[in-house]
Amino acid sequence: MWTLCVVRFIRRKCVLGIIFTLSLIYCIVSFVQEVPTEEYAEVNPFPVRKLTKFQWRSESDDNATADSQMTCRNSVQGKVLIADDRGYVCNRGDLLFTGCCNVNSESTKHYWCETCKDNNCCSIYEYCISCCLHPDKKELLQKVIGKAEQTFHVLLSSISDHFELCLAKCRTSSSSVQHENSYRDPKAKHCYGEMPPMTSAP
């Protein structure tokens, strides 16, 4: 009987020892794996998307715009106008079931910069998007991204291509507002360039 108790005691000690050893090894391995992540987080808490992975619109993309099977993303919320990710802007009634503007409609315009000023600010949101999508705007937008990397890491990490960048840039922001309650330029409050709207004369 006494021998049986001793054997059980030894077995329990062995089991507990094994459990303790495995737990200790797990903790050490977990700690070693987490250290580089924590060090990186202190240096760069918001990973910035590299421009090499960024999808820019190019002139060669325009050759595929007549594809009837193509689907498009678009600006969605406009009551009158819609801009699609190919740079077309059209009346909402001329939007196809694919989400693309009907290029055969008279109302459809491509890379339309009507109402946009020399400072790259426009009075109409959809025109701002269409103008911003022009391949010629790539160099300007690269400068915008370069400056924004220092202050808007979270925004940039959620943007993957030219269209998403134009959607975000053309929305009115705090840079379009003065005195917290009025637009700097009510006639051109949608901007995709480096500079905020100019303050309009009273």
From TrEMBL:
Transmembrane segments: 14-32
A GO-annotated cellular component: Golgi membrane
Alphabetical list of InterPro entries matching this protein: SPRING1
Presence of the UniProt keyword Membrane in the record: yes
Compartments in which it is found: Golgi apparatus membrane
Primary location group: Golgi
Coiled-coil region(s): none
Signal sequence range: none
Record membrane topology: Single-pass membrane protein
Keywords: Glycoprotein, Golgi apparatus, Membrane, Transmembrane, Transmembrane helix
Gene Ontology BP terms: positive regulation of SREBP signaling pathway
Membership in a protein family: Belongs to the SPRING family.
Protein name: SREBP regulating gene protein
Organism whose genome encodes this protein: Bemisia tabaci
Lineage: Eukaryota, Metazoa, Ecdysozoa, Arthropoda, Hexapoda
